[in-house]
Amino acid sequence: MRGLVLLCLFGTVLGHKWDESFKSFEWLGSDEEPQESDPKPDSLCQEDRSSCECCQMLKQIHRVEELFNRSMAALQHNLKIAQSALKKIRAQRSAFSVVLGDAYCIGPNSNDKIVVYTTILVGDGYDMSTGVFTAPLTGLYSLAVTVYTITERMWQSLTSCATLSVNNVPVASVRDLGKGDNQDSASIAVVLNLKAGDRVFVLLPSHCMLCSDQNTFTGFLLYATD
Ligand SMILES: *[C@@H]1O[C@H](CO)[C@@H](O)[C@H](O)[C@H]1NC(C)=O
Q: What are the boundaries of the signal sequence (predicted)?
């Protein structure tokens, strides 16, 4: 009988399908009385103890396989969710950084004017012909502006200033009046909720000046919210 158990398990180990192994076991049990056989493990156990042990083992293996299949299915489901989240995050990247040219001054003007930065360091979304960054996605953005002015002549009146605007609405302003020094600088750093299509730019107010490549305008999407 021990031989039977081994044979039975051997079949399973060899990669026979569970159903086939189980059927062949049932067939052994029901051979003598094909119509009236009772496959209940209890009565079977009374008739043939070793066959019963084999049957219990196969049932156990079946249970483990079911559990394994369920865990595997759950893992595959979660992997799919993670992969699509990653894909979405990758599609939602946005960053730009622009700078004014070296030895380049703009202003003072009699009217407010959009600062058109001359060099793109990183990214797109910034229009070099208009000086406007258009938000590609709705979300939370980090935006930073640094202004700087220098003059060789100490007595020249200097004002370094700028206004960060979204859709023509001022969001933050800096202003450094030059009195007695020949360098002025200031910075803006904000985090803003922007909608896709919002137009962000740096405005140079009238009578203000910006000089050199220490003037930068930087923005990036922290995370999308749509
Ligand atoms: C486990 O999954 C395999 C592959 O899909 C399948 O052939 C087998 O019948 C499953 N086993 C159980 C116990 O559900």
A: 1-15
CATH number for 141: 2.60.120.40
| Ligand 1 near 66 CB (within 6 A) | yes
The span from the CA of 211 to the CA of 215, in Å, is: 7
Q: Is the pLDDT of residue 198 over 60?
A: yes
Tell me what pLDDT residue 153 has.
56
122 and 215 part of one domain: yes
The parent domain of residue 117 ranges over 95-224
Pocket test for ligand 1, best of 16, 65, 66, 75 (most atoms within 8 A of CB): 65
Q: Is the pTM of this model over 0.70?
A: no
Last residue of one domain, picked from the residues 90, 123, 147: 90
The 10s digit of each residue's pLDDT in 136-153 is: 999 999 999 999 988 765
Q: What rounded mean pLDDT belongs to the chain?
A: 82
Ligand 1 centroid–CA 62 distance in Å is 9
